[in-house]
Amino acid sequence: MTWLLKGINKTDLDLLIAANALDLGASLVTNDRALLDGAIPGLDVEYWV
User: Fold this and answer.
1) What is the pTM of this model?
2) Assign residue 3 a region: left if phi > 0, alpha if psi is -120 to 50, beta otherwise?
3) Residue 46, φ and ψ in degrees, nearest 5
């Protein structure tokens, strides 16, 4: 994955959540800033508070 080559740090749980959303083709709704940065290609993230 290209984001790994860029040295982008995500916690294991952030990656697990993102991987599940990508696998399901789902939008990820979160307020977690680590996932809102757009660094994971193909991950559709929406900020809801």
Assistant:
1) 0.75
2) alpha
3) -125, 140
The span from the CA of 24 to the CA of 9, in Å, is 23
pLDDT digits (tens, 9 = 90+) for 1-49: 555 555 567 888 999 999 999 999 999 999 888 888 888 899 999 998 7
Structural domain span for residue 20:
2-47
Round to whole Å and give the CA distance between 45 and 29.
6
pLDDT one-digit tens code per residue, 11-22:
889 999 999 999
Count of domains forming the chain: 1
Please give the span between the terminal C-alpha atoms of the chain, in angstroms, as a whole number. Answer: 30
